[in-house]
């Protein structure tokens, strides 16, 4: 039996100051301006399964800002996968705000984003 799975990577940006909410689609990833609640969704009754997640910064090109705030590209939050899994796994959709209310700050002074890869799997109902 063939099972179709969809994979998505989502980048949500977190910044100290508020900016105008806007979206742009680049390289198959969704980049979202700071503190915007953006839903992860699967079609029909398929459910979300988080494959990987990081809140921090691993690239100086994604969600770029002041160069001084992007120097640290080894910024990881080890609990990001657990946090996202608890909030989103086995749901058809979930919304997460990339910010300090949800994620502890792994590297103060660094302009961070939430990077999530998830799969849509056939629901068990």
TrEMBL record:
Q: Which residues form the signal peptide?
A: 1-22
Alphabetically sorted, this entry's keywords are: Lectin, Repeat, Signal
MF terms (GO), sorted A to Z: carbohydrate binding
The record's listing under Gene3D superfamilies reads: 2.60.120.740
Q: Where is the SUEL-type lectin domain?
A: 40-121
Name of protein: SUEL-type lectin domain-containing protein
């Amino acid at each position: 039996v063939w099972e179709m799975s969809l994979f998505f990577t989502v980048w949500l940006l977190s910044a100290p100051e508020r900016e105008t909410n806007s979206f742009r689609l680049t390289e198959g990833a969704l980049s979202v301006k700071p503190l915007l609640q953006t839903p992860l969704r699967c079609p029909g009754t398929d459910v979300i399964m988080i494959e990987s997640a990081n809140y921090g910064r691993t690239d100086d090109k994604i969600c770029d800002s002041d160069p001084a705030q992007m120097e640290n590209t080894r910024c990881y939050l080890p609990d990001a996968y657990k946090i996202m899994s608890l909030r989103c796994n086995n749901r058809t959709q979930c919304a997460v705000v990339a910010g300090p209310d949800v994620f502890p700050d792994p590297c103060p002074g660094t302009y961070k984003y939430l990077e999530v890869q998830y799969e849509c799997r056939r629901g068990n109902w």
